[in-house]
Amino acid sequence: MNDRNNGALLRVSGLRKSFDTVRALDGVSFEAHRGEVFGLLGPNGAGKTTAIRAVLNILEPDEGTITFDGKPFDDSTRNIVGYLPEERGLYRKSRLLDTILYFAELRGMMRSRAKQDAMVWLERFGLSRDTGRKIEEFSKGNQQKIQFITAVIQNPSLLILDEPFSGLDPVNQLMFKDILLELRGQGKAIIFSTHQMDQAEKLSDALCLINQGKVVLNGSVREVKKKYGTNTLHLEFEGDGRFLETLSGITRAMVYGNAAELDLAPGTKVSDLIGMVNGKIELRRLELREPSLNSIFIQMVGGGAKEAVQ
């Protein structure tokens, strides 16, 4: 786990933004640190994209401050931030290499250097032989790769990714995860916005969960799990386990056939549970697992979020 006391590259404090009668952001604050993947999480419509657009100076918040290394956003900041939007932002009739070079030159790169770096990325993504093809000729997944290249081509210090795995098959998702961890190792600050908790749990060092424009929880993944989660005991057994649902020291029990998931109440030890079930069922497997972000997400946001985290 990275040390979060070394100072933040990005600080967002007290953001508020309304659209007519809708409060999209209501006092949102978070920080993104160098060498860290920061998960900006929440169900669809929670306010994540509005927060990102405020950070990128695409829209102006009604209240709050945003600083980069202690300074407000300016023209120099624009060139140290890479952005992968959830929506496709590519010119469909443009050719692949021309598209990447166009975005690179917008960020102040020399064309010769941009072409050299672009070919390295295209080779990595298996697209180096397709430089003359038009964007519209590529699959959704390959368009996502191209858009990612336009976000990282200028070697940004802060990389903001809004649903980066959209349109990618499992093999390419794994490739993207490896690249993000590689960029983290280079000291970049990465904001990873998603509503898919399994991806966030695998990648994030720290996170901020937003719901209905408000911060529900914020901190390192380990801190969040310790504060909000409940350790879950997974059992496999022989016998009738229906009695497990009535045990003391259990806050939640799900029994299905010869398996069960039990949430232990504070102070309940695994050894206590073993004593309570001894002689009633024959244990074949017992495993204590830390809570998942998905379970914490549903606990904090409520049942209405279940659809968003499928």
What does this structure look like?
With 310 residues, the protein is α/β, with parallel strands linked by helices. The chain has two domains: 8-227, 3-Layer(aba) Sandwich (Rossmann fold); 230-289, Alpha-Beta Plaits, CATH 3.30.70. The chain has ten helices and 14 strands. It has a six-stranded mixed sheet, with helices on both faces. Strand 9 and strand 10 form a beta hairpin. The model is unreliable at 304-310 (pLDDT under 50).
SSE blueprint and pairings:
Blueprint: E1 8-19, E2 22-33, E3 36-41, H1 48-55, E4 63-68, E5 71-72, H2 75-78, E6 81-84, H3 96-106, H4 111-124, H5 140-152, E7 158-162, H6 170-185, E8 189-194, H7 197-203, E9 206-211, E10 214-220, H8 221-228, E11 232-238, E12 250-256, E13 259-264, H9 270-277, E14 282-289, H10 293-301
Parallel strand pairs: 3-8, 3-9, 6-7, 7-8
Antiparallel strand pairs: 1-2, 1-4, 4-5, 9-10, 11-13, 11-14, 12-13
Helix pairs in contact: 3-4, 3-5
Number of helices: 10
Structural class: alpha/beta
> What is the C-alpha radius of gyration, as a whole number of Å?
23 Å
Helix-strand pattern, N to C? EEEHEEHEHHHEHEHEEHEEEHEH
Q: State the separation between the terminal residues, measured CA to CA.
A: 27 Å
CATH class of the largest domain: Alpha Beta
CATH superfamily of the largest domain, by name, is P-loop containing nucleotide triphosphate hydrolases
The name of the CATH architecture of the largest domain is 3-Layer(aba) Sandwich
Mean pLDDT: 89
DSSP strand count: 14
CATH topology of the largest domain: Rossmann fold
Total tally of structural domains: 2
* Proportion in β-strands: 25-35%
Helix percentage: 25-40%
Shape: elongated
